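fold-stage: in
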Amino acid sequence: MIDWTDRHCRYFHRQISRNALLYTEMVVADAIIHGPRERLLSFNIDEHPVALQLGGSDPVKLAEALRIAGPYGYDEINLNVGCPSDRVQSGTFGACLMLTPEVVADCVRAMKAVSKVPVTVKCRIGVDEQEPEEALPELLARVLDAGADAVWIHARKAWLKGLSPKENREIPPLDYGIVYRMKERWPEVFIGINGGIQTLDEAAAHLEHVDGVMLGRAAYQNAGILADLDHRFFGTAAAEPDWDGLRDRMMAYAVRHIESGGRLQHVARHMVGLFTGIPGARRYRQILSSDAAKAGAGPEVIAAAFAAVDFSGAKEALSA
């Protein structure tokens, strides 16, 4: 979710679900060590619980990045062994690390040695010509032996050559069954599932077999599905979504961001998919997409966008 789940996106999602674990974009260890660490690592305290997702293949650099990130107060550190993009491969991390499970284990071991919070791994079921039934359990065995506290598995292979990142999300077939079998093999380990999950009903079905469900693009492109998440999975009381309250909180947040030198578009771009399928959603999207990008745009754009939505049909559309 590079360029998607930045701190503005996470703050927005946190206003809809108080309990979901949020993940940062993948941040490369070298960038933390040598780059603008405050911009890369700082986040709003309201985002908790939030996990920092790291990219890298050098145990020493990952440990150093984690030492730097420690004081920021993340609730989890996640090592990405699943991203298939070309720029990730050129840095020898992401999904290509599936080919060297011993390197991943060394990275986890080094991170565990300095981390005060859980260290987890997000991986694919395999890459290229690997046989997932062999490659995936070998990776899990190594990283768990190294001390990994949990594993999140994207239930697709990644093809490192010949497919774009977008195609890698669609063309390799999903195999949820192999993820279930990994949970059966390691019943004492937290194993979560990711990949192609579109609804909370699908998430509930997966939770019959695994410990956690990760929603990526489904939550970004239709953030309204998060409105019932706390009630369904965290036992909070059922309640109508407070759309007015969400509007007001995001307007106040936008004001603070603009006053600090930012632009409304930085915040509003993550809100475009909120009311997918609800009457007035098209006009809502138009306002946020066009007006928020204009010079001098302020929180009144968010108010105008919300005013275009017919909330009387929101509950039925979001539960469909």
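fold-stage: in (second)
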Amino acid sequence: MARTVVISGGGTGIGFAAAEAFAADGEQVVLLGRREEVLARAAEQIPGSRYCAVDLSEPRGAREAAEFTEREYGTVDVLVHSAGGNGRLEQRSAYDDDPLEAVARDWTLNFRLNTLTAALLTEATRGHLATPGGRVLFLSSIAAYRGSGLAPYAAAKAALHPYAFKLARELGPRGITVNVVAPGFVEETEFFGGGDFPEERRSALVAETATGRIGHPGDVAQTLRWLASSAAGHITAQVIQVNGGAERGH
């Protein structure tokens, strides 16, 4: 029987790759995100998928997404939190010329995009997670371990870890697992704003890996697919590194 897989940020990048992977297994995929045109285009490429355009950083948006899924499918078997980013795609504020206002905006924005979206959607849907067999999967980042030049982003991703561990304890008695995946450098996403990535920086990031290559959305998607499978039924409260060994450094 097909499962229902809900993916936030499912219109692009890792979320889209995950949606393709689950759909290829015959699962019912629900794509969530703010940009309806992006979701509609993604849904056209993924057979049998549907979408719901909402702002998951707002309680109303998370509630709307949960109600849509419950109304159309009843139960959420797999919940994948891929929505997020570093805020580079957001419109600049008139306050950004004030240094402290810019700091406040940057930190608030990153926690809204990466932490609050995941927390609100999880809390809105936790009552509808498949029992037993449900899966909750968060997308963190290598930055949560190593830091980066984008400190607010790294901190917002790191905040997901204790939340996931807490959920694993709370949901474990229902037969639901909760895990985190921490990708490293994945170029084919909107994370870098769609501009040209400096070759020198790219080469440096590749050199940090043990595998000698960049990561691809499919690398992360297949890890999520495995964690959502019955084969990973006794794995919970873990952070899986998908970064070619870069987290260990040289």
